[in-house]
Amino acid sequence: MIRTFFLLFSLLALPPRLKEMKSQESVAGSKLVLRCETSSEYSSLKFKWFKNGSELSRKNKPQNIKIQKRPGKSELRISKASLADSGEYMCKVISKLGNDSASANITIVESNVFCSVKTEYVCIISITVQGKRKRTLYCGYNLSLSQTISS
């Protein structure tokens, strides 16, 4: 009976299939999350992450990348993204029933903030002295500031 149940379970169990991951574009300094999810109920799933074909392990992954694993899914979190984080990321799920993979491209662009402030002050002073001609005095200054900030 147990052997029949195991055989039947093995025939009905399907290999894990990953949901599609979406490519993302973000500015330098931002946070990103890639989610690798499967609908499989199989408990012994192993997830691996790759960047441009190289596995991201504890020894060779950048400090700003964290990998979290939960039942049925894994998340790759990038904090303070830099241009070096751009690339193709692939998640691979491995089980006794089979393997699957999904990939997405991450593009990080420079953030340029341009600030421009232009201020003009103009004052008009009109003085009339009794018995004298009317005098008008103009004064003012023009201040213009602009700065480009790159992060």
From TrEMBL:
CC annotations in GO: extracellular space; plasma membrane
Localization annotation: Cell membrane; Secreted
Keyword tags: Cell membrane, Disulfide bond, EGF-like domain, Growth factor, Membrane, Secreted, Signal, Transmembrane, Transmembrane helix
Signal peptide: 1-20
Chief place where the protein resides: membrane
One example GO MF annotation: protein tyrosine kinase activator activity
GO biological process, one term: nervous system development
PROSITE patterns in alphabetical order: IG_LIKE
Domain Ig-like: 16-107
Membrane topology recorded in Swiss-Prot or TrEMBL: Single-pass type I membrane protein
RNA-binding found in the keyword field: no
Name recorded for this polypeptide: Ig-like domain-containing protein
Species assigned in the record: Muntiacus muntjak
Upper taxonomic lineage: Eukaryota, Metazoa, Chordata, Craniata, Vertebrata
